[in-house]
TrEMBL record:
Name of this protein: Methyltransferase
Record-annotated C-methyltransferase domain positions: 275-433
Pfam family, one: Methyltransf_13
UniProt-listed Gene3D superfamilies: 6.10.250.3100, Methyltransferase, zinc-binding domain (6.20.50.110), NAD(P)-binding Rossmann-like Domain (3.40.50.720), Vaccinia Virus protein VP39 (3.40.50.150)
Keyword terms: Methyltransferase, Transferase
Keyword Transferase carried by entry: yes
GO biological process: one example: methylation
Domain Methyltransferase putative zinc binding: 11-72
InterPro entries for the chain: Methyltransf_Zn-bd_dom_put (IPR013630), Methyltransf_Zn-bd_dom_put_sf (IPR038576), MeTrfase_14 (IPR013691), SAM-dependent_MTases_sf (IPR029063)
UniProt keyword annotation of Methyltransferase present: yes
GO terms assigned for molecular function: methyltransferase activity
Source organism of the structure: Phytohabitans suffuscus
Amino acid sequence: MDGTVRFVATCRVCGADDWLDVLSFGSTPLANGFLKPADSYDGEATYPLDVGLCRDCGLLSLRHLVDPRILFDHYVYVSSDSRSMAEHMGRVVDLCWQRAGLARRADLARRADLAGRAGLARRAGPAEGALVVEFGSNIGLQLDLFRRRGLRTVGVDPARNLVDVANERGVETVAAYFEPASAAAVVGAHGTADLVLGRQALAHIPDLHRLVEAVDVALAPEGVLAVEVPYLLDLLERNQFDTIYHEHASYFSLGTLCRLFAQHGLRVVDVERVPVHGGSIVVFAARDGSSWTVRPSVARLLDLEERGGLRTDRPYLEFADRVRRVTGTIAELVRDLVAQGQRVAGYGAPSKGSALLLACGLGADELDFCSDTTPLKHGTVLPGSHVPVCSPEQARDRAPDVYLLLAWNYADEIIARERDFLAAGGRFIVPVPEPTVVGAGTRRDAVHAAAAS
Ligand code: TMP
Ligand code: ZN
């Protein structure tokens, strides 16, 4: 192995080396490594994709990590502007507003400002308003919503191409990894943060301790850390094997996050399950010694994890068995349709779509194309499976008989929107948790159960 891949010998949370091998997907290309169409893809780089459980702290982790510079310096994943994601981002603002004391901070700032205007006190300077710092802020869609609620915001994201877009949109964003040095620079310029937020970012960060050290640098004494991560219990129960790919180094339970944060003087004070990305948790943590008290939601979810046996081998081995069965069923279903002369295409070209096709052994022999709303992906081919990506407009002109719903986390929204396709006899295969064929006659609750979103 060259210097681009690092073997994970000891756990990145607790340092133990007692691993359970859960699943191996062999050596695969990066899920976001979209390629220009070519006659041959012989030179395509692949990297080992194995996932294991740390039996000590319960971290589910990749056993090989690809150098983050290869993964993230130029990033094609642009935050979705879909309806359901916009709704979710609004909910995150509301949650943080209630749970992270932003309402109180904003109120104090407003009163100071009013008092200042009345000549009663010094006018509130910018440092007196609540500050939100988001790491992995992408093009700034989430921060924009905080800004509209009157808060000050700073984004930190390593992908220059996305940082440029965020700044052009007026969301101040620094091109950097969120580390103690970049956190200190943000504090120097703006003061400490009332809220440090990381949405769907933690899984991408190999050095978890350095990340939490950066949080420690950035966070005000009474500030709150909020992280949103895909939830391990949902991953296991809903067979979401395609969310396992090189960018996602870690798959978290609440118990493991409690243990990680505790090592840095932070304690989890609240948690909320949210449906985004197939099931996620938003975890709130505050400094030991701060005035924040722990809500009952924390003990409740820890108890659920205990009852689900998350600290034992069983749920992981059962998950691996189901994944072998489900990937086989998806491949069989698609191959049978193609053999019957049906045209099959992918709906969406998300990174997990690349992962799904590779895990199922499907590719350009079975799928005509994948349609995706992201302009950066148009005219490329998917890594590994080499299925061409086109725009939804192009896809409408050559609609297939069946869409394999690769963007299954938006199943409700997409299936509702594609009623003309369904009315014309088109069908969807929703691949997880159990491969399910959805047509015009399928009842909505069955679709919902299939999508489990
Ligand atoms: P995500 O699950 O990581 O947000 O990625 C979703 C991908 O699916 C992204 O590439 C955009 C694409 N997509 C569509 O092509 N059509 C849609 O209707 C939606 C919601 C997403
Ligand atoms: Zn561990």
